[in-house]
Design goal:
- This protein has 253 residues and is of the alpha+beta class.
- 20% of the residues lie in helices and 22% in strands.
- It is built from 4 helices and 9 strands; from the N terminus they run E-E-H-E-E-E-E-E-E-H-H-E-H.
- The strands form 3 sheets. Strands 3-6-7-8-9 form a 5-stranded antiparallel sheet, with helices on one face.
- Strand 6 and strand 7 form a beta hairpin.
- Helix 1 crosses helix 4.
- The two termini are 43 Å apart.
């Protein structure tokens, strides 16, 4: 790739999915950089006034001189296990930042540990805001979020876990596990998630059994009550490991 800086950002740039598990930058990949040589100083012109076009030393480029190839090792995610496993995208669902995670942070930790212990599985996490219009939609002034965890693998069918931030909730809203027994496009899975969350909000914080039955026959929905609720036991390895083993059995098997 050409080593030029200050080019137009986001203009005609390709995004390359390097595959595998997101959030892991422990593997090495060899990258070739195409370094163009510096242009000779123009006589009578102050070099300091020239626009910088090289990121390494700030030198302009002379296209008449030969270029240099530099090969380096860089850290990337794990290689794609399926030779074509596509990244999960829920473009039809909104997203909120990590500051909306509420009491879901310990669940997030448990889910990452499940992925780490299962080499062929990739976990994608997303925080989406509940739709507005009901008391459950907000925690104070911020939108209440639902954590969506999608487990994909070239060897297994998708598993999707949903759990809502319980901060300030008096009820016992369970988490939901969606087990897919047939290959299903991610756009379709996103539609199932959107339907379940919308009707849950309309029913003031209760999952809708009727809409669960409206899902395709190859989707099995299971409730997971009191899902990693004791966040004060974050440093209790026995408690955390217990949930890792329990959820791994539910999700991976």
């Amino acid at each position: 790739m050409e080593d030029e800086a200050d080019s137009q950002r986001n203009a005609n740039q390709d995004v390359i999915f390097l595959g595998g598990k997101r959030g892991c930058f422990v593997n090495k990949s060899r990258v070739t950089k195409h370094l163009l040589p510096p242009r000779p100083v123009t006589e009578g012109k102050d070099p300091a006034s020239r626009r910088k076009t090289r990121s390494d030393a700030g030198h302009p480029i002379n296209s008449d001189l030969p270029s240099t190839l530099v090969r380096k090792l860089v850290s990337v995610g794990e290689p794609a296990l399926s030779g074509g496993l596509q990244p999960v995208e829920f473009s039809t669902l909104d997203q909120v930042g990590a500051d909306h995670i509420g009491d879901l942070s310990l669940l997030e930790l448990v889910l990452w540990r499940i992925e780490k212990s299962t080499p062929d599985v990739t976990l994608t996490l997303r925080l989406v805001p509940l739709k507005s219009g009901r008391a459950i939609s907000f925690v104070g002034r911020r939108r209440r979020a639902c954590l969506i965890a999608v487990f994909t693998s070239p060897k297994r069918l998708p598993r999707v876990l949903l759990d809502v931030d319980h901060t300030g909730l008096s009820g016992g809203l369970s988490g939901l596990l969606l087990r897919y027994d047939a290959a299903t496009p991610m756009t379709e899975i996103a539609g199932h998630v959107r339907l379940l969350l919308a009707t849950m909000v309309d029913r003031h914080g209760h999952w809708d059994i009727f809409n669960e039955h409206r899902l395709p026959r190859h989707v099995f929905v299971k409730r997971l009550p009191k899902l990693v609720r004791m966040t004060e036991r974050r440093e209790d390895e026995q408690y955390v490991l217990g949930w890792v083993m329990r959820l791994k059995e539910e999700i991976i098997t």
